[in-house]
Design goal:
heterodimer, A: 111 residues, mainly beta, six-stranded mixed beta sheet, four-stranded antiparallel beta sheet, globular, disordered N terminus, B: 112 residues, seven-stranded mixed beta sheet
């Protein structure tokens, strides 16, 4: 498969545990944020998004938390499964700008 | 199926030989964009297009060209590829600038 990052931080979790992946964003004026999942050999896939007028949003097994005070975004995955193994990265968008992507975190799910 | 299709998936070429990577989307999206992904650097934007005949430079446009003659297609052109353009390239599209991007499955380019 394609290597999406040789020097990424890695998070290893036991199958069934919860995972928390963090992202520090750079622009205090950013008002839209997305989490993407990238599996080996594939393009990034949308997971969940959140706008700056919210601080929490839930999807199926995933929750995104936004802390604008410290410019921090997190992705929580409940009951992590082997299929969750991938690289996860955040993207931020400011008004009139294009998306800026974080470098990513590799999630490794241990059996 | 709604998708962004890139071709080819893999390409090996030599320095200076012009090449084109095609990108097509079937979602009637206004916005399209090209990115390159390099280890440790994340996704960096090369060029983007807000609509037909409207294109603009991203963060790393040097050595690349694009065109947007039709809404669905957004080819990436390397007129004279160099080894530093060896990378993994992604095309993406979205309904508008302020909506999620849909990505293709990538093109691995090697320039020797």
């Amino acid at each position: 498969g394609e290597s999406v990052g040789l020097h990424l931080p890695t998070l290893s979790v036991q199958e069934g545990d919860n995972s928390i992946i963090n992202c520090a964003y750079s622009n205090s004026a950013s008002d839209y944020f997305i989490w993407y999942k990238q599996e080996s050999g594939k393009g990034p896939q949308f997971i969940i998004d959140i706008r700056s007028n919210m601080d929490k949003r839930q999807g199926q097994r995933v929750t995104v938390l936004l802390n604008k005070t410290v410019k921090h975004l997190s992705l929580q995955i409940a009951a992590t499964q082997p299929g969750d193994s991938a690289v996860y990265f955040c993207a931020e968008l400011g008004y009139g700008q294009n998306f800026v992507f974080g470098p990513g975190t590799r999630l490794s799910v241990l059996p | 199926e709604a998708q962004v299709t890139q071709n080819p998936r893999y390409l090996i070429t030599v320095t200076g030989k012009k090449l084109t990577v095609t990108c097509s989307q079937n979602m009637n999206h206004e916005y399209m964009s090209w990115y390159r992904q390099d280890p440790g650097l994340g996704l960096r934007q090369i060029y983007y297009s807000m609509n037909v005949e409207v294109t603009d430079k991203g963060d790393v446009p040097e050595g690349y060209k694009v065109s947007r003659k039709e809404k669905r297609n957004f080819p990436l052109i390397l007129e004279s590829p160099s080894p530093n353009q060896t990378s993994l390239y992604f095309c993406a599209s979205s309904f508008s600038l302020n909506s999620p991007l849909h990505f293709g499955n990538g093109t691995r380019l090697t320039v020797t």
